[in-house]
């Protein structure tokens, strides 16, 4: 599978690139940069409000532009209302190359450049998309390769989520993983058929009712090179009908995104590989379609997991934790220093925090702070929820070791995370991300559709996580 959207790119350095002045807002109006003629802008009502744009006349039309960046940044614990304000300029400026001028020392140019690249994303698999008009010359202070690597990972995650399930089933998700492996020299093993049924019975049970060509499988990528043992596990439910506990149509419409966890770990792997940081990385994706058929697993069934724990199925629509559990058990057998799972797992997470702020769970206080801080500092916000021990009893039914869907509806995100943690024994630092993977309404740098969540938080926290995990052993 090829990436449907064009590769992210910066404009080549060009003396003809027009200047884009970033203007902060003071108490008494714009804080004008030196060398800028202000009369036209002032007469036009330019006040340097966040996202405000003023085109400046030149001898051949537009000679440059002013872009308002508002008042100095708010404290770190009070994030700005817009994550990628500079992306508004990318979407509104006339065609051509632009270079940033006059940015205040406090302005995060890396953040701004990344938002610009994100705004250039176009999903063009099914219809022609107008290419981005305004292109940014990469600022000298920005690590060009790192920014492009992060954008490429984001593009890949968006493409995978945006692709309809008819074209993104388990086989196509495998093809996407193989294409990534081919690009970066990773090894791929895919377990399916009888071997899957025997060794990963819960993955097989969830996916066995899917139609021809959509059989369940476990995708296992290993990247070459030395490095700390890091394993990423992503939920790859390519479409979720709910199984025999079938969803209403209103809940099924976005279920092409139920493989968002897999899309995010593949996007993160793409970024790490492009940055030369994928040595020792392993990626596991249980890829299934939760369908309705004569072979569907049933409410009330008791499944025996790869780890040997038995699980009573009290809702076939709580299938994500079942497939993740077998994959996590496999991951833990190698005792990785860091084990991270990502999944579009629970509606409870969205009720608690909404679509824009995914919760994560981590027992290690220092690792959790590293993750939260990286998300805050890199415009990829996440929020910690607890592995609340008193709720363990809620996932322990009468006739099996575990319950996949405790009755009552309380603390659904926490009980799901507690369920997954039961399968991670032996691993070092474990963190679980309950993401949404979808942008409900367009925002600067984030068009409506599939979106990466938690990827840059993990990317920037990984050195601290691996140092801590390996140092503790």
Automatic annotation (TrEMBL):
Residues 315-322 form the Cytosol aminopeptidase domain. InterPro entries: Leucine_aapep/pepB (IPR011356), Macro_dom-like (IPR043472), Peptidase_M17_C (IPR000819), Peptidase_M17_N_1 (IPR048816). It comes from the Bacteria. One of its GO terms (cellular component) is cytoplasm. GO terms for biological process: proteolysis. Keywords: Aminopeptidase, Hydrolase, Manganese, Protease. It holds the Pfam family Peptidase_M17_N_1. Signal peptide: none annotated. One of its GO terms (molecular function) is metalloaminopeptidase activity. PROSITE patterns: CYTOSOL_AP. Belongs to the peptidase M17 family. This is Leucyl aminopeptidase. The lineage of its organism: Bacteria, Pseudomonadati, Pseudomonadota, Alphaproteobacteria, Rhodobacterales.
């Amino acid at each position: 599978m090829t990436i449907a959207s064009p590769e992210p790119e910066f404009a080549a350095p060009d003396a003809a690139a027009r200047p884009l002045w970033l203007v902060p807002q003071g108490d008494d109006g714009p804080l004008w940069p030196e060398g800028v003629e202000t009369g036209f802008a002032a007469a036009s009502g330019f006040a340097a409000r966040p996202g405000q744009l003023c085109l400046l006349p030149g001898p051949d039309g537009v000679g440059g532009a002013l872009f308002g960046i508002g008042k100095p940044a708010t404290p770190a614990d009070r994030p700005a209302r817009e994550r990628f304000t500079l992306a508004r300029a990318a979407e509104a400026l006339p065609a051509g190359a632009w270079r940033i001028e006059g940015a205040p020392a406090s302005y995060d140019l890396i953040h701004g450049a990344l938002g610009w690249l994100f705004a250039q994303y176009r999903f063009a698999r099914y219809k022609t998309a107008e290419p981005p008009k305004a292109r940014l010359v990469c600022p000298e202070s920005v690590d060009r390769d790192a920014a492009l690597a992060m954008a490429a990972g984001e593009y890949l995650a968006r493409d995978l989520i945006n692709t309809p399930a008819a074209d993104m089933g388990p086989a196509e998700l495998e093809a996407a993983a193989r294409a990534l492996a081919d690009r970066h020299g990773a090894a791929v093993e895919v377990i399916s058929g009888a071997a899957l049924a025997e060794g990963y019975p819960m993955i097989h049970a969830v996916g066995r009712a899917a139609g021809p060509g959509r059989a369940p499988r476990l995708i296992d990528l290993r990247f070459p090179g030395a490095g700390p043992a890091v394993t990423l596990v992503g939920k790859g439910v390519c479409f979720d009908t709910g199984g025999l506990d079938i969803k209403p149509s209103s809940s099924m419409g976005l279920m092409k995104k139920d493989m968002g966890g897999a899309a995010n770990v593949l996007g993160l792997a793409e970024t790490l590989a492009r940055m030369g940081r994928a040595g020792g990385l392993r990626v596991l994706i249980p890829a299934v379609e939760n369908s309705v058929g004569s072979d569907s697993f049933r409410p009330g069934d008791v499944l025996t997991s790869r780890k040997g724990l038995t699980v009573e199925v009290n809702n076939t629509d709580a299938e994500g934790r079942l497939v993740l559990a077998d994959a996590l058990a496999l991951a833990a057998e190698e005792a990785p220093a860091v084990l991270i799972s990502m999944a579009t797992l629970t509606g409870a997470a969205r009720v608690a925090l909404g679509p824009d702020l995914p919760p994560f769970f981590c027992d290690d206080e220092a690792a959790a702070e590293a993750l939260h801080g990286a998300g805050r500092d890199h415009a990829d916000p996440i929020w910690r929820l607890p592995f609340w021990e008193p709720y363990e009893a809620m996932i322990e039914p009468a006739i099996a070791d575990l319950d996949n869907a405790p009755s009552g509806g309380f603390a659904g995100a926490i009980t799901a995370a507690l369920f997954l943690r039961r399968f991670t024994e032996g691993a070092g630092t474990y963190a679980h991300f309950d993401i949404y993977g979808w942008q409900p309404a367009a925002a600067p740098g984030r068009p409506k559709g599939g979106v990466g969540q938690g990827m840059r938080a993990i990317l920037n926290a990984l050195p601290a996580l691996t140092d801590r995990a390996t140092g503790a052993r």
